[in-house]
């Protein structure tokens, strides 16, 4: 195994989180990248980094590269600066994968200023530090929610950005900021920022080992972790379905669920594409070295479909109440995944049964999750 000093250092913000921790594992397993995680532990546990290291050792052997963790809040610009300075002498941080954000569609409508401060303010602080330390490779965790209610489904990347939730608008704003930063730096040689926004559809599942999964603090806001926690008795079984009067086959919202390990793979492919510059050939200096890709499966599943799928995986008989629509929800977010497949080589291969099986395996193996570790 190559020793860590020869690996490209990749700063992963929010790397303790659900997506972030799976990205950290995927980076480690490439043998090319060394993840350096910063996270403020607002919605994640330090235990996650130990699990990532354990999985790397399980799969690569005792001398597997080990991830590095610094508890840092992106809004603390001096702390962020210290992290970049710390690695400046060792060749510096080669790229940033930026996942740290507040991410609940419904909640964002209740506390929008918090969402703008963290998601937009935090991204600007990070980009300033990158500029200061000549780090010019960036993968941004964007979201399908930037499309709002799209005119066509499945949704291509060319669909207008018209987010309908504060959360989605923060992601849309950061994409716009990124394009301006790429445009402004396009003629600056090795200081030209090369950025890729990966627009997540709905991540689901957990690492197949059961050692890593979705462990939000408190009651999950998202459907799948909530279903898993209800089935193991961690949450009361007062499941509410937010609306069945949408223009969809069964009236409930449709989302494009993809396995979190496939989603994590998409980040590695985006970094590889930045390294090879393969995807920027069509970019002009007037536009800047910026691309955006959907990371989805291209298969829409409704809320009721997902309840049935989790019943099949867990054996739990869910009871639910149909209530009013949730602020910010849109009827159908299903990806057209063809551009990411063509240009990144990205395919979300795992199926719904694997997503639900791995989610259930994680939940049953981690009764109280990471919180009690
Ligand atoms: C899915 C559907 C709800 C809970 C998530 C992330 C967001 C983004 C996209 C990355 C919706 C319904 C939910 C419940 C319900 N990911 N639901 N009862 O809103 O699509 O967003 O994926 O950027 O960050 O939050 O996912 O799981 O919250 O909702 O009926 O108790 O399930 O209304 O239709 P969402 P979700």
From TrEMBL:
Transmembrane residues, as ranges? none
What GO annotations for molecular function exist for this entry? UDP-glucose 4-epimerase activity
Matching PANTHER family: UDP-GLUCOSE 4-EPIMERASE
The protein's required cofactors: NAD(+)
Q: What is the lineage of its organism?
A: Eukaryota, Fungi, Dikarya, Basidiomycota, Agaricomycotina
Top EC class, one word? isomerase
Tell me which EC number(s) this protein carries. Answer: 5.1.3.2
Q: Which reaction does it catalyse?
A: UDP-alpha-D-glucose = UDP-alpha-D-galactose
The record ties this protein, via InterPro entries, to: NAD(P)-bd_dom (IPR016040), NAD(P)-bd_dom_sf (IPR036291), UDP_G4E (IPR005886)
Q: Which residues form the NAD(P)-binding domain?
A: 11-358
- Write out the pathway annotation from the protein's UniProt entry: Carbohydrate metabolism; hexose metabolism; Carbohydrate metabolism; galactose metabolism
The molecule here is called UDP-glucose 4-epimerase
